[in-house]
Amino acid sequence: MASLNAINAVHATLLAATVDRITLTAPLGNRIKVTNRDSSTAIYYRFDGIDPTVGGAESFVVLPADSDTFAPLTIPVDIRVIATLGVGYSVTSVV
Question: Average pLDDT of 49-56?
Answer without folding.
Answer: 96
